[in-house]
Write a structure and sequence with these properties.
The longest helix has about 40 residues, at about 25-65. The protein is mainly α. Helix content is about 75%, strand content about 0%. Helix 4 (about 85-125) runs antiparallel to helix 12 and helix 4 (about 85-125) packs parallel to helix 13 (about 270-300).
Length: about 300
């Protein structure tokens, strides 16, 4: 009598029956799922509370711009009984448009200058073999320690000597100079995480340093460049001290100083002032909504290095 064996082994059903499930393992997974629900619920509650804390003041400011002056003080937390859209028109006609255009001009020029200069400086400090690179890096980073407030007097003398005091250039030059150190540090940290093989391949193919920078490094660094641009935009849009001291012509004033002057002119007409503040906040809200994905990615990959 001879025994024959199936070369394919036992049937799948038989293999399944031969490996019964361990009740302790399945029970442990269920317990882990149940215990993971509580931290998730707490996280959602925390995020919801944070969203309310951020959005409620903005909504209250926008709704206050639709009330009358008496309604604002008698019912500050209620919805406007009869929305007064003319408050927004009055705020616009009081000079908000001019201040808005001045801020947009100064902010655009400063952001462009800071990002370009800082990106080129970071590329040179990380990829190029230049003499005294380490002392140059320390010198650039040391600029972050300088407080703008203590430099107001020498800066005023310098701007007057350059004949750019009380002009747009006064703010553009200062905003650019004071933000280059931090932006260079941020972009340099991001470039250190990028592989250099792509740049070496472009160099072997005949690309110059300038072409490698524009056609390889800049596209690969887009997240951190967007983050740097958004941080610079936020700083320039809300900056008050330099705009107050170095620009005295009413036609050149930016939004923070212009709105402060408008509050003095309006005396106690607070709804129009709230309408102007709402108009001033809208561009920043739009910028962050459009670039929030690149902003978070650039900060996470750059600042963490």
């Amino acid at each position: 009598m001879t025994l024959t064996m199936d070369p394919k082994g036992p049937a799948p059903a038989a293999r399944t029956l031969s490996r019964p499930k361990d009740p302790s393992r399945t029970g442990g997974a269920a317990v882990r799922r149940r215990t993971g629900v509580i931290p998730r619920v707490l996280a959602y509650c925390g995020l919801a509370a944070l969203a309310v804390a951020v959005l409620y003041p903005l909504c209250w400011m926008a709704l206050s711009g639709l009330k009358s002056n008496s309604e604002l003080f008698t019912a500050p937390w209620s919805l406007p009984a009869h929305p007064r859209w003319d408050n927004y028109a009055a705020a616009w006609n009081e000079g908000t448009l001019r201040y808005l255009l001045n801020s947009a001009l100064v902010t655009s020029a400063s952001v462009l200058a800071v990002v370009l200069i800082s990106a080129w400086a970071a590329y040179g400090l990380t990829r190029l073999d230049i003499p005294l690179a380490r002392p140059a890096l320390l010198l650039v980073l040391g600029g972050m320690m300088l407080s703008p407030t203590v430099a107001l007097v020498p800066l005023a003398q310098l701007l007057q000597a350059l004949h750019i005091y009380d002009t747009y250039w006064a703010l553009i030059v200062l905003y650019t100079a004071f933000k280059i150190p931090f932006t260079t540090f941020l972009i340099r940290a991001y470039l250190l995480s990028l592989p250099s093989e792509v740049e070496e391949a472009a160099h072997i193919d005949g690309a110059s340093r300038w072409q490698t920078f524009w056609q390889v490094v800049v596209p690969m660094s887009r997240p951190v460049l967007v983050s740097a641009a958004m941080l610079q935009t936020l700083f320039c849009w809300n900056e008050y001290a330099f705009a107050l001291v170095f620009v005295t012509d009413d036609r050149l004033k930016t939004l923070p100083v212009g709105l402060a002057d408008m509050a003095g002119k309006l005396n106690s007409d607070w709804p129009i002032l709230f309408a102007g503040l709402t108009i001033a906040a809208l561009p920043m809200i739009v910028v962050f909504l459009l670039g929030q994905r690149h902003f978070i990615r650039g900060l996470a990959e750059g600042a963490g290095k």
